[in-house]
Amino acid sequence: MSLKPWREVAIPHDDVHRGTFVRAEFAADITRVHDGSATPEYLDPVLFFQRTYITEGMGALLTSVAKRLAGKGGDPVIQLQTAFGGGKTHTMLAVMHMVGGKAAKSDLSGIPRLLDAADVLDLPVAKVVVLDGIKLSPSQPRRVDGHTLRTLWGELAWQLGGAEAYAALAEADATATNPGKDLLAELIRKAGPCVILIDELVAYIRQFEEGKSLSGGTYDANLTFIQALTEALKAAPQAVLLASLPESEREAGSERGVAALHALEHYFSRIQAIWKPVSTEESFEIVRRRLFTEIRDQDTRDTVCRAFADWYVKHKDDLPGEAQEGRYYDRLRSAYPIHPEVFERLYQDWSALPNFQRTRGVLKLMARVIHRLWQSDNKDLLILPGSLPLYDAEVSAELTSNLPVGWDPVLSRDVDGERSEPALLETQEAKFGSVQACRRITRSIFLGSAPVSGNEMARGVETERLILSCVQPGQAPHVFKDALSRLKTRLTFLNEGNNRWWLDVKPNLRREMEDRKRRFQDPDVFDEVADVLRKVLGGGSIGNHHVFTPAEDVPDDFELRLVVLLPSTGWTRGAGPNPARDAAAAILRDRGGQPRVKQNRLLFLAADADQVSHLRETVRALLAWRSIETDLKETRITLDNIQAKQVSQNKDQTRDTVQRLVRDTYKWLLAPTQTVSRKDGTVGEIEWEAQALNPAAVGLGKEIDRVLADNEWVIAQWAPVNLHYLLKQWFWKDGAVDVKALDVWQKSCSYLYLPRLRNSDVMSQAIAAGAPSRDFFGLASGKEDDRYLGFTLEQATSPFIEVALLIEPSKAVACEEATRPAPVEPASTSTATTTTDGSTTTTPVPAGASGSSTTKTISTAAMPTHFWASAELDPVGASLKFANIMKELVELFSARHGTSVVIKVDIEASDGRGFDETTVRAAKENSRVLGISSADFD
Fold first, then answer.
1. Please, is 533 exposed, middle or buried when counting C-beta atoms within 10 Å of its C-beta (0-12, 13-18, 19+)?
2. Nearest CA to 374 among 416, 421, 337, 414?
3. What is the DSSP letter of 349?
4. For the purposes of burial, counting CB atoms within 10 Å of the CB of 374, is it exposed (0-12), middle (13-18) or buried (19 or more)?
5. How many beta carbons lie within 10 A of that of residue 558, not counting itself?
6. What is the pLDDT of residues 209-227, one digit of tens each?
7. Which of 207, 312, 397, 569 would be a feasible disulfide site paired with 579, CB 3.0-4.6 Å?
8. Which pTM was predicted?
9. Is the dihedral of CA 722, 726, 727, 732 positive or negative?
10. Interatomic CA distance for residues 522 and 530, integer angstroms
11. Are 96 and 197 in contact (CB under 8 A)?
12. What is the pLDDT of residues 488-546, one digit of tens each?
């Protein structure tokens, strides 16, 4: 089923499609309506409400007025304060027509529903007073029927009750002094029900100069009158005051205007009810009612909107997420025949401009747009941002008049028009011309970027939002993306960065940069990537990084090493060729033609194959910007200050992008591993495990440490029970009951099925942690035949991995039993006894037996109980000598049960020249770290 274009469903009002409207018609003039000289759409209450959408805020305000006049509550004072063109005057006109009695309430669209909801069955006709701050002059009294009206209160009294009411405060009017709230309240009560509308009040009061008195009074007298009037309204039950104030100080004008605004806000805040401004969603209906007749074929409208919504869901990867939400279909219906994105850009971006009127400006612009599209027989399904006829002088003038100077050449060259670059590209490539892809893209970029072109923080429109601004059901998004890529290299004022696009009045240097990119090939690109990687890899525990290093230059030793693979060897997901895996396997397999032995000491960092192309192009752009900057500094090229700054900014931005992309691209950490079959214990083929790094984590080195720890690819702390299981599985078998710790460490560095320890200290710490227990292993410093040297079990020690021997627990227990000393027999003593004849006899006495008081006990010589030794070591070979002392002497005693061993180290250093500050500081700090209790200089 073919979809109908907007022009067959939504018919513009006659003045719009004929182009007979005038700009002033969109600016409501409350005085002209009050005196009957306005155009019909504002003067006729029925026609006015037919073209007026009653928003939530306006509905609440009209309800409050109706209740007030009917004596059922309501607010006595209502302040209307919105941005320029925000609908304040239009709201006052709605109040005027609702209470004016010039048409039956039932004929006013939307009013009966409001009155029913407010339970107002009979809304009285009210007298309407209009005080227009633009029409009235403080220095030019108004003459009416022989009376001279000088002040706001004189004008108020005349409109309330003519000559009779004016006479009550004629003296106050003549002397330009405030009549007081009681008199004002009396006049309002007599005239009630009544509505007082004060428009552009700040514009009136700011004309009074400090210290000067005009016929309209003084600055202070007028502020006092406003205060008295707001107080008087409380005493008049069937009267209401509506006053409009500007939203910003800029709209208030001079310093006097700003002061008046602040003073009036203070007085109104005492009693006011603030009107809720128009929301963006409500603006859809406001504009539609003013510009289009009622849509009668709503089924066709819904069909078109549903087609758009379904197309957005189908192409969700190319469009903003909001376009897939169910409520976006409702937005399409509400805004029809204008696409919601047009309103988004106008109300969010253009309305932020000081001179662009929020509602009135949109109405004027869209009236021009619809007239031009109607005349050119536009057949789009909706009026999209890409549909705007910016080639039309009147349409473009409505927009550029709100922008700084310089945008006309941007529009004519890079945006729209028969001789523009986008139009030329469409004539050259049929796939673009068939859907006007290039011009639709540039129109959308202009609408979304021109009002914020000077704001660096909010610059540009995302690619996805540009597609949303252009594509219609049946059109392929990739055509518009292709158009973007082509325009990027051809337009003079188009800029792009971080997936955002914008136009600026300053010419870009992108064409020059794109030309220079071709100078730089992969070796140049890889050198730059390597530099970035070296900077971001710091901060981790792996101290050896080999960035793009050939296999023969990667050492084969016991150090843990991270090998970073070339960008051209990226990691790919799923089955199929995997360049990163192949490159890593080649480095793991050999080193310069020799088999690599320490395979379990290598880890690999690889790029994501899908992102390498983007990284490569961005690095080339960085090198191109650098070359432009270099040529500029060496005066080989000449640029103005703005262009020079742009070069520097682009270089810095691209450099930052490269650093981010390096993190985003180098995201795969690879670890080789082998598994062991539980059935027969055979070792399988080498497999590759890959884990993605978080590019947002602080510090690539620390993020690598986190992944290594989480996946137990590198062990930094090893429990002795795990060491025990490893020894039991691989080393204490086939009759072997002991193994050298150094052999275990070296084999863990070679075989991929063994744990990968960070360094040998991890094993030393595990041995030290397990030494006090008899459950894991026994220790010895060596073995002669079947005798273990320096044997210990269940004793704390600080092992040297180079000499430590790990003994299977049951064997260690048996060894302990075998080496335990036999019990020592008690030594006997001899008792010498002198007989009566003077001879002496010797009798053996068992130990512990006591003799007579005349018996003398003679003991054998005691065994030595204390050993000490002192040695002086050559500083050059002290490490090796100390190890031999530990092995041959200290362990001789530490292996004995119950033997206490104390080792003291004396260090003396003398230098007649004296020690410099650096040496002193280092010595003291190292002594503190090593736990040396006594260390000092003299």
1. buried
2. 337
3. I
4. middle
5. 16
6. 877 788 888 888 988 998 8
7. 569
8. 0.51
9. positive
10. 12
11. yes
12. 878 888 887 778 899 988 778 877 888 899 999 999 999 999 999 999 998 889 999 99
